[in-house]
Design brief:
Radius of gyration: 19 Å
CATH topology: L-arginine/glycine Amidinotransferase, Chain A
Distance between the termini: 17 Å
Low-confidence stretches: 5-24
Number of helices: 11
Strand content: 25-35%
Number of strands: 19
Number of domains: 1
CATH class: Alpha Beta
Strand order of the largest sheet: 1-9-8-7
Amino acid sequence: MPIARLPLYGLALTGLLVASVSKAEIRRVPAEWEPQAAVWMQWPGRYEKEMRPAFADIIQAVQKHESIHLLANSEKEQQAAAEFLMNRGVSVANVTWHIIPIDNAWMRDNGPIYVTDGETLRIQNWAFTGWDGTTGATYRKDDRVPLRLGTLLDMEVEDLTDYVLEKGNLEVNGAGIALLNWDCQEQRNPGLSKAEHEQILKEALGLTEIIWSYGHHPDDITTGHIDGSARFINPTTVALADTGEDTEIRLAEDLQTLGFNVEWYSGDVNWLVGDGYIVAMSELDADLDATLRQHLRRYFPGREVYLVDAWSIADGGGGIHCVTNDQPEF
């Protein structure tokens, strides 16, 4: 597995050496609704065992459409996880297991970001610090997961570990435009100006435009990850969580000023979009769920909609998107 530093311009931003890509190279991050090869997850350990039933339901939905890869700390943990899934009626026939040291179950954030030049796919390994150390753990195992996946998938890995970026705070439309929450990026990488943040992100991810969201709930350990607030549902339309909070209202105004369409969604926007399906949070109410299904079918025509009880994941500080990491097909 090749491990590459991106070509440097010798750029030093307030002491941070920035790896940046040649301006001649075309690259982009595929949108989530594009073809996928698989979905990856990290099996919840003993401190996150309350989330296991929700994981089983997510896996059962996803495996009807594409492969699932599950990371576990040991063969003993893998066997126990397989038994748990089978006891809940979940097939393990198309689950590929990997014994890889992990610290937590939130693979969206510590897992890889994928970029493509249109012909090949690469993994990007950004720094992961456990949400700025808010839980008191080091997450050194999780920080190495992109490198280990590069070996498994025989993909080139770009080293971008001078900068912290969690994939839960990166929402792309597949055409060079991204949504990110400013509070999160500023906290994770203090001392950088907005222009410096944008230069790093645009060059590495092949972006032409970044639209920033501002503000977050004080109890949110992710410091406002964008996938809890706003999701592209096509290149020109964004679904926003209908919370009534200033963060979403301001973002809606900014998006509309820039010419984007805005859809207000009354449920949890932390969903996973895959090949032929979408897995979203159930409100555990038949009437509310019927309304959510209508919206999701309109947002993603032709995809089967699964609403699952993932409130145990929400209690842990995230959602369905947070515990899944989709691998594009190239």
